[in-house]
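Lecture notes, continued. The same structure-token format from the folding unit now serves as the input rather than the output. Read the line below as a description of shape only.
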């Protein structure tokens, strides 16, 4: 299963590329209050969430979304770390015992900059830090 958050579509594109290669299904996480798809409109909210360290409420995924042992987990980098919407997802969805293959899109930030947050929010998962969708 490929679980991703994408505000502006970049991460969605990468998720879809992974799906083509692996045949996995896609699940777009759903914030209770959706972000505008136009980045100019979404940016003030994202900026506020970064400044105030606010985690938005995110819907719980259906059980079948969480049934695979391997989860590809994708998010944009916002404020040099994992997008807050993905943090909200990990707070209400338990990925214990699973292998997480994380990927991200960003301007300049690296995946590594988000791994501390990922490990904190998925403490009982195996994180494949070497995963890179380009190598699929
Ligand atoms: C409010 C805001 C903050 C951002 N912060 C960062 C950042 O800290 N580091 C970075 O490399 N890119 C940053 N970006 C760029 C996004 O990570 C990049 O455009 C990403 O591909 C967006 O993914 P999406 O289209 O799937 O939402 C930021 C973008 C926005 C709108």
């Amino acid at each position: 299963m490929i679980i991703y958050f994408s505000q502006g579509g970049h991460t969605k594109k990468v998720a879809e590329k992974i799906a083509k290669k692996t045949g996995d299904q896609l699940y777009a996480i759903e914030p209770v209050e959706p972000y505008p798809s136009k980045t100019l409109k979404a940016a003030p909210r994202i900026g506020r969430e970064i400044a105030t360290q606010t985690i938005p409420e995110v819907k719980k995924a259906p059980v079948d979304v969480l049934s695979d042992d391997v989860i590809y987990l994708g998010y944009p980098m916002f404020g040099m770390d994992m997008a807050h919407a993905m943090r909200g997802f990990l707070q209400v969805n338990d990925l214990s015992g699973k292998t997480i293959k994380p990927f991200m899109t960003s301007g300049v930030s690296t995946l590594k900059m988000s791994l501390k947050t990922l490990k904190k929010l998925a403490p009982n998962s195996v994180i494949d830090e070497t995963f890179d969708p380009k190598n699929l």
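Point for the exam: The pocket of flavin mononucleotide is lined by residues 6-12, 39, 43, 46-47, 76-80, 105-109 (CB under 6 Å).
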